């Protein structure tokens, strides 16, 4: 039996699941690229228009959302860095799942 470093597990028991995951991931990548290309073509056909119809029925809309307010942290950091420092806390990052090819 191979000794693994701490925090490491042997995934031999789920090898088939990992292979299936990789295959699906590749398919999703191709589908996502195809979808993006098709969307671009449809957006180009819409031009500046907001509604697209087929046979008299609305099938696509492409409208702007309502304007929103966003906090400009960079401007505050420049104007009042001490406030930013006082109210900034360090938190754990998200756990990232990554399959290595």
Summarize the SSE layout with pairings.
Layout: H1 15-46, E1 51-54, E2 57-61, H2 73-79, H3 81-86
Antiparallel strand pairs: 1-2
The value of Rg in angstroms is: 24 Å
Strand order of the largest sheet: 1-2
Number of helices: 3
Largest sheet: 2 strands, antiparallel
Distance linking N and C termini:
24 Å
- Mean pLDDT score, rounded? 95
Could you tell me the strand content as a percent range? Answer: 5-15%
Helix percent reads: 40-55%
**Unreliable residue runs:** none
| Shape, principal axes of CA atoms | flat
Number of E-type strands: 2
- List the domain count as a whole number: 1
- Assign the structural class, choosing from mainly alpha, mainly beta, alpha/beta, alpha+beta, or little secondary structure: mainly alpha
**Order of helices and strands, N to C?**
HEEHH
């Amino acid at each position: 039996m191979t000794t693994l470093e701490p925090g490491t597990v042997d995934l031999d028991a789920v090898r088939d699941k990992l292979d299936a995951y990789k295959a699906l991931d590749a398919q999703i990548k191709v589908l996502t690229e195809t979808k993006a290309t098709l969307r671009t073509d449809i957006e180009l056909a819409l031009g500046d228009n907001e509604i697209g119809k087929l046979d008299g029925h609305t099938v696509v809309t492409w409208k702007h959302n309502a304007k929103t307010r966003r906090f400009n942290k960079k401007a505050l950091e420049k104007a009042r860095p001490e406030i930013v420092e006082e109210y900034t806390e360090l938190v754990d990052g998200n756990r990232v799942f990554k399959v290595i090819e």
